[in-house]
Amino acid sequence: MALTLAGLAAERPLGLRVLTGEDVLGRPIGWVHPTELTDPQAFLEGGELLLTTGLALDEQTSPAYVRRLVDAGVAGLGFGVGLSHDEVPRALVATAAEVGLPVLEVPRKTPFIAITRAVSRAVAADEYATTVRIGRAQQDLTRTAVGKGGPAAVLRKLAKLVDGWALLLDLGGVEGAAPAIAQSYAGEVREELKLLRSGTRVFELDGHEVVLQTLPTRVRRALAVGTAEPLDTAGRHVVNTAVALLSLALEQDLRLTHAWRSLRTGLVDLLAEGRYELAFGVLTTVWGDPPEPPWALVALVGGPGQRRRVCDALEGEPGLFFAEKGSAVLVAGRSGGDVLDRALAAAASVGPMYAGLADPVPLENFAAGAEQADLAARAAEAEGKPLVTYAEHSARGLLSLIDPVVARIYGENLLAPLRRHDETGRGDLVESLRCWLEHHGHWDVAAARLGVHRHTLRNRITKAEELLGRDLDSPGVRAELWVALQT
């Protein structure tokens, strides 16, 4: 704690007497500066206790002198009496009282060097205390970082050390909060983070000063620390230490996570190759007994960030095995259990993902089952449905063998000329073509179903043939168009 004017005035051997500013004696003293200059502003940084004997001051010059000191941001003025002045000029005291500048009368018997020594001792003690506090805090944070609690424990320790709250954020949301109520600030902090590419940003939030600092990790992350009062020197060092430790811990966690996920993917490859004994041996050693076949297989399709977070959500779920396979997460569990519900719950916690289900899948059909679950998930994605089962998908016959996304893009491109024509309001070529193909090219039946004259239908099909640049008498062309119309 820095020495204040009140603390200095309380040191009885100095014999200081407070003349003005009793209500602001809590100001800390940054340093002591003796000078007889009437305008010392150029030599001051602010926060000093200025000492003078008033050699160049009188009743006329004192008011302007006091105002210059206030402009310079001095903490207070110590005026030595018994040399140039028997007492502090009345105009100086009156002006200081008016502008709120504390004035301490220094008796003749007290040398200025005694005041300087007192402040110097206090500054040195304060710096030592700050150093000790920083050292202890760094030790506490380091011990916490190497313990079993991980980044979450570091956040809790940091919040306690700065007597505030801490948030760890990444692109997807909040990775950690301490205490839990800090989660409520996440929205505002994320808005501020949009303004910060790297480095540090300080802003006010709900009565707190918030220090927002990016972390030097491969995945973009930031640490936000909120305190009721601005951080002091020790507090800033503590935050910097936490940034370094969190960055290191998160990078180590990332490498370890990648290793574990690569192992999971390798086990899926072993199962697909039929090397069950080896795969089950590793599964049992690392994660305990695997679920008993036959299995329900759920494929979850989403972006890279979603796949990473859904793996985090599934971690530790009993009776489940999961692994990334291509651009999907494959979840396996005992057939007839609650595998699907738990997989969908994990997916819902990270945002919209698309699920495909293959159930039941005997162990010897694992490779086919995984492919079926993936195809069903792709169909769900193409159709905008949260879930498609393989049984539902395979009911589509030949179309179930085509990648749904590829089929949709193919269909959109092939039928684009007809849809552009229909958007002009000059006819309904797409539906006319669909109905005509559905009724095997029978004009009368298709026209009756559409509610138009058969000559109108003939004109529409001729126009479609012209726009498509395809011969609609070709069975192959008709098959391609039928596939396009089903996507």
CATH superfamily of the largest domain, by name, is GAF domain
Give the amount of beta strand, in percent: 15-25%
Total beta strands: 15
- CA-CA gap between termini: 73 Å
Helix content bin = 40-55%
User: What number is the mean pLDDT?
Assistant: 86
Radius of gyration: 39 Å
| Unreliable stretches | none
General shape: elongated
CATH C-level class of the largest domain is: Alpha Beta
Side-by-side strand order of the widest sheet:
1-5-4-3-2
Largest sheet: 5 strands, mixed
CATH topology (fold) name of the largest domain = Beta-Lactamase
Instruction: Look at the helices and sheets and give the structural class.
Output: alpha/beta
CATH A-level architecture of the largest domain: 2-Layer Sandwich
- Indicate how many domains the architecture comprises: 4
The number of helices is: 17
Chain oligomer state: single chain
Pfam family, one: HTH_30
Protein name: PucR family transcriptional regulator
Organism: Amycolatopsis mediterranei (strain S699)
InterPro entries: CdaR-like_regulators (IPR051448), PucR_C-HTH_dom (IPR025736), PucR_C-HTH_sf (IPR042070), PucR_dom (IPR012914)
Structure characterization notes:
- Residues 429-486 form the PucR C-terminal helix-turn-helix domain.
- This is PucR family transcriptional regulator.
- 49% of the residues lie in helices and 18% in strands.
- It has 4 domains: 5-120, Udp-n-acetylmuramoylalanyl-d-glutamate--2,6- Diaminopimelate Ligase, Chain: A, domain 1, CATH 3.40.1390.20; 135-251, Beta-Lactamase; 291-395, Alpha-Beta Plaits, CATH 3.30.70; 404-486, Orthogonal Bundle (Arc Repressor Mutant, subunit A).
- The model has no long low-confidence stretch (mean pLDDT 86).
- A hairpin with a 2-residue loop joins strand 8 (200-205) and strand 9.
- A 5-stranded mixed β-sheet has the order 1-5-4-3-2.
- The protein is α/β, with parallel strands linked by helices.
- Helix 7 packs antiparallel against helix 8 and helix 15 crosses helix 16 (454-468).
